[in-house]
Write a structure and sequence with these properties.
It catalyses: ATP + H2O = ADP + phosphate + H(+). Keywords: ATP-binding, Helicase, Hydrolase, Mitochondrion, Nucleotide-binding, Transit peptide. Helix content is about 45%, strand content about 10%. It is built from 31 helices and 20 strands. A hairpin with a 5-residue loop joins β15 and β16. The radius of gyration is 32 Å and the shape is globular. Bound molecules: adenosine-5'-triphosphate.
Length: about 750
């Protein structure tokens, strides 16, 4: 390093900084001061009057002979801190940084890292060390650090240099213009608006089946499947396309002109006669809303039938107006009666056949199921993480007049689309854990829309209970429910958007050395949209996976695809399997069903606890991810049909597990975590975060299982340290504190 310093001195570099200092003193910091080398050319040799501050060039010894005393003044951390504080406090510096594209947040973050670099004392760029020395001896001003600082900031935020191009790429102000095929199709849009069970989807589906070429876009795999099945049962050709499954009615796998798909899979490159977009109010969904926006604006069909809540009409109308389109409204009334009862259920002994108890967490669901079984009921259960096959089996059992199972316990997973023979809906609670777009969780009242959707499941047209009833478990909730059910749902205000693979690719072209995670952060920050109509969907899961696979050698497209995989990032089993798959992919290795079996230790044992059941559900998700990837990378994920068979086997194991939920609940988890933990952690009456452990669990930063393992480990450490304490009493306080942190 001294050799370089001395070289710089030999070529007269030092006066450059003196010049900078004097320039900035006259006029504040100016552009030239940001470019030391440029300025160096202008002022070299003109500042001899400052030479007294330095040794003359001829005095500079060669590196080998250089005495230590010739090095720049060695600065203490305190001195460096003072210089940097003076520097960053200057309004001119902040203004100049802003002119250069460094906003307040980036300025702060870059400065924190810059200061860390300066204080680290090692590997400081030579120029930086010299400027700092010059400032210290009065030969330069703090302003003169600006060039060094900006060079450093550009390395951290390379997008600053090509901000204009990037801003153009992530300009999301006119999404309607992204779909020229749809714009050219001369679309007629019909909105079938009505409450649940009003026949709106039924009428739209009639058009779907009559048309020559048509597409149905549903909110759930299960619903896409149901439409596919019903269409095929009528002898009409139809394909199925969900994220993880493609089924062709043609034996040679040639696509036909009709397809039932999940909304994310809506095909935008074909022109259809009729397209159906179901549950359109979902375009406000924080995670998935983008898929409805995309389908609504992008599907190329002569007739687009949109089904959903009337509350969504204004937003749909406004979105379509941006494409120069209008919408025809067809309103529907509920086909069957729905009565709100005048009293709450009060006790589970009042449950009758045809009742469905709705809870908003698995803890309540399992507890109530156990109590009902103890009362002699045969119970069907439905909750979100249950695989679709198992859900359908539970629905079938419940709907079957001959089957002794005639009571259901469900989470709000029944709120959308399922046709069930429910006589009465009983709300166990009106509160639900809500995950905000920043990932924070809190206990909130359910929305009017959710209450209406769920209550609407009672008294289904064409079932044995055409007159529906609804009530609550507890008296205290009944009035609130009545007021919710007599209200109109809150109109969705904005529709979701999401960066496309093409946009990310163009970003990566401009920022070749930037990680996908940073690309997304920059995208989020620079993106512009019409805030009165749109919001950027929550991409935390995408960013999480992007960070995890950052070190793998994957092409950008593959990286993007892995990050889009349908993964619950709180599920450690699924996340670790996705990472393994990404690693194998990066090594170009084929992943067979046998490979997968080895990874997950297939086949699993029969579940003996709720924790085992949860693991089985995770395995099901792993299969889903494999199949999802097999559609996108068929060359490396070659055995989806074998994996599908494994999935069917797993469905059966899970269904059998559901049949003996009470037994499973009585057993401790396979990892030693008793089921009781659920009850303690999520007890509604005491939901407020009481401990750090509670906060961590509620914020999703730690799972209950991991927490239990930690407790186990720490208890073990505690015991060990107590043993040690007997021989070394001084250590007792530390271990005690650590323990209390978790337990108090
Ligand atoms: N005209 C009809 N003839 C026969 N069956 C009908 C008719 N209209 C609706 N149905 C049946 O009634 C049930 C409810 O209809 P549909 O699913 O269309 O309601 P929806 O308004 O879309 O409700 P949700 O939003 O809850 O799905 C379905 O089983 C459907 O097949």
């Amino acid at each position: 390093m001294f050799a370089i310093k001395n070289f710089l001195r030999v070529v007269n570099y030092r006066p450059c900084f003196v010049g900078l200092h004097s320039l900035s003193r006259v006029s504040g910091v100016r552009e030239n001061a940001l470019l030391p080398c440029l300025y160096f050319n202008q002022v070299r040799g003109k500042r001899k009057s400052f030479e007294s501050l330095f040794k003359s060039d001829t005095d500079v010894p060669t590196p080998t002979k250089k005495p230590v005393s010739d090095s720049p003044k060695h600065l203490t951390p305190r001195e460096i801190n003072t210089i940097l504080t003076d520097f960053i406090r200057k309004p001119e510096i902040r203004n100049l940084a802003a002119d250069r594209g460094l906003n307040a947040k980036h300025l702060r973050l870059a400065f924190v890292r810059f200061r860390a670099l300066c204080l680290s004392g090692s590997n400081l760029p030579v120029e930086l060390e010299i400027v700092l020395s010059d400032i210290m001896v009065g030969a330069a001003l703090p302003d003169d650090l600006f060039g060094q600082f900006m060079a450093f900031a550009m390395k951290i935020y390379p997008h600053i240099q090509c901000k204009e191009e990037l801003s153009r790429i992530c300009d999301l102000r006119d999404p309607a213009a992204w779909y020229p095929l749809a714009r050219a199709a001369g679309r007629k849009i019909i909105f079938h608006a009505g409450p649940t069970n009003s026949g709106k989807t039924y009428h739209a589906l009639e058009k779907f089946m009559e048309a020559k070429a048509s597409v149905y876009c549903g909110p759930l795999k299960m619903l896409a499947n149901e439409v596919y099945q019903k269409t095929r049962e009528k002898g009409i050709d139809c394909d199925l396309a969900t994220g993880d499954e493609r089924v062709y009615c043609n034996p040679e796998n040639v696509p036909c002109d009709r397809v039932s798909c999940t909304v994310e899979m809506a095909p935008l490159q074909e022109v259809f006669d009729v397209a159906i977009i179901d549950e359109i109010q979902m375009l406000q969904d924080p995670q998935r809303g983008w898929a409805w926006s995309r389908a609504l604006l992008g599907i190329a069909a002569k007739e687009v039938h949109v089904c959903g809540e009337p509350a969504a009409i204004p937003l749909v109308r406004n979105l379509l107006a941006t494409a120069g389109e209008t919408v025809e409204i067809r309103e529907y009334k509920r086909l069957t009666g729905l009565t709100i009862e005048n009293s709450a259920l009060q006790t589970l002994s009042n449950v009758r056949p045809g009742d469905c108890l709705v809870c908003f967490n698995k803890r309540d669901l399992f507890k109530i199921t156990k109590e009902l079984e103890a009362l002699g009921h045969r119970v069907a259960v439905i909750y979100g993480s249950l695989p679709p096959g198992a859900k359908l089996m539970q629905c079938k059992k419940f709907n079957d007049d001959v089957d002794p199972c005639n009571v259901m316990v469900a989470t709000d997973a029944i709120g959308m689309g399922l046709n069930l023979n429910i006589r009465r809906i009983i709300f166990v609670s009106l509160k639900k854990i809500d995950t905000k777009s920043d990932g924070k969780r809190s206990l909130e009242s359910i929305s009017v829309s959710q209450a209406l959707q769920i209550a609407g499941r009672a008294g289904r047209f064409g079932t044995q209970y055409e007159q529906g009833h609804v009530t609550t478990l507890r008296d205290k909730d009944l009035n609130k429910l009545k007021s919710m059910l007599s209200s109109f749902p809150e109109p969705p205000e904005k529709a979701g958007l999401h960066p496309t693979a093409e946009q990310i690719e163009m970003f990566a072209y401009h920022l070749p050395d930037t990680s996908l995670q940073s690309i997304l952060e920059i995208f989020t920050e620079l993106s512009q949209m019409d805030d009165s109509l749109y919001f950027l969907c929550n991409i935390e899961s995408f960013k999480f996976l992007a960070e995890k696979i950052d070190s793998l050698n994957l092409p950008l497209r593959a990286r993007y695809t892995f990050c889009c995989a349908p993964v619950n990032i709180k599920d450690t089993i699924v996340v670790s399997m996705v990472l393994r798959m990404a690693r194998e992919y990066s090594h170009n290795k084929v992943m067979t069903a046998q490979w997968l079996s080895r990874q997950i230790q297939w086949p699993p044992p029969v579940p003996s606890s709720i924790a085992d059941m949860t693991k089985l559900e995770s395995l099901h998700d792993v299969f889903d991810v494999y199949m999802w990837l097999s559609i996108r990378f068929p060359d490396l994920f070659q055995e989806s049909s074998d994996v599908k068979k494994m999935k069917t086997t797993l469905d059966d194991i899970i269904v059998k597990g559901l049949d003996s939920l009470s037994r499973l609940m009585s057993n401790a988890g396979s990892d030693g975590a008793p089921y009781q933990v659920f009850n303690e952690m999520f007890e509604e009456t005491s939901f407020r975060p009481r401990t750090l452990a509670h906060e961590l669990v509620q914020s999703g930063n730690i799972s209950l299982e991991t927490l239990d393992r930690l407790k186990g480990n720490w208890a073990h450490n505690e015991m060990s340290s107590q043993k040690e304490t007997q021989s070394d009493p001084d250590r007792s306080s530390t271990s005690g504190n650590r323990h209390n942190l978790l337990m108090t």
